[in-house]
């Protein structure tokens, strides 16, 4: 990894640890000016959400492979009816309750939860959190999290779709974060595409960037969202 790439990755990890917004258009106050800053550096915008990080060590690659196995297990289990638990928050009440199919139009958030074991018989928890736009037309946010047996976050996904991008009828954004068991970011992906899975140019799109928390531990997530499991 060259020097500039190393600096970018360090900045990216720093952004995660501080829990700041992943804003597409940083304001002037987001930057610290120095006398030694070059013109190229001052013009370059750092977009943490669109950053891509590849695993650099054998251990990191092995950790990514293990996480991918768990992702496949989640996909297989989701095909089996009755395996998942489903909870929602309705716009009439902030309490988290069991999902009622007859009241879908009034849902503001939905949680799909799987508790299972991987191929090594280790426990893991998968949680998909969907935040709905009130008119179901402008945007939706989806966050997916996988916690290991110790409750540590090992996989996080941010998914977003919008009708207001200006570059496609519907534009989709997806980022994946892979973490080692000690919390190190070992892989990060990013893609932006239309409803036909054609890649889009981010520079031509407006993709709303919200402030969100990945919740690095299961206990931290449950403290914020006390799911009645």
Describe this protein's structure.
The protein is of the alpha+beta class. The longest helix has 21 residues, at 58-78. The protein is built from 4 helices and 8 strands. A hairpin with a 5-residue loop joins strand 3 and strand 4. The model is unreliable at 1-44 (pLDDT under 50).
Attribute tags:
21% helix, 229 residues, disordered N terminus, single chain, alpha+beta
In spatial order, strands of the major sheet run 2-1-3-4-5-6-7-8
What is the total tally of β strands? Answer: 8
Globally, the shape reads globular
Mean pLDDT: 82
Task: Report strand %.
Answer: 25-35%
Task: Tally the helices.
Answer: 4
Helix content: 10-25%
N- to C-terminal distance: 44 Å
How does the helix and strand content classify structurally? Answer: alpha+beta
Cα-based radius of gyration, to the nearest Å: 19 Å
Order of helices and strands: HHHEEEEEEEEH
Oligomer: single chain
Sequence stretches where pLDDT stays below 50 over 5 or more residues: 1-44
| Largest beta-sheet details | 8 strands, antiparallel
